[in-house]
Amino acid sequence: MAIFKEMRRVRPSSSKAFDRTFGPHMDAAYSGIYRCTGCEREIAVEGGRRFPNHPHPPACPAILWQLIVSVSHNVAECVPAKFRRQA
Ligand SMILES: [Zn+2]
Asked: What is the spatial distance between Cα 47 and Cα 65, in angstroms, rounded to a whole number?
């Protein structure tokens, strides 16, 4: 299970993106942390990248990757104030 320390760094979502599953040779539609629904292994994948192989126990149900934590690429808050555009 994915864990985190600071609650203010994550927020809940009802996006359907979390309902989709992806086969092992598909490309990830979103950047984030995925879990294998068959064996519960978790991995981080960048959107557009193919899901990697992993040591999936043969007795477990088939590999399907499900997004459990989506990442934000909004870095506007990380830009030092002196470099920010004025609106
Ligand atoms: Zn697995």
From this structure: 13
For 24-53, what is each residue's pLDDT tens digit?
999 999 999 999 999 999 999 999 999 998
Domain ranges of the chain: 17-83
79 C-alpha to ligand 1 centroid (Å): 38
DSSP state for residue 85 in the 8-state scheme: P
29 Cα–ligand 1 center, Å: 18
Q: Which amino acid is at 85?
A: R
Three-class SS state of 16: helix
Task: Name the residue among 18, 30, 24, 10 with its Cα closest to residue 68.
Answer: 18
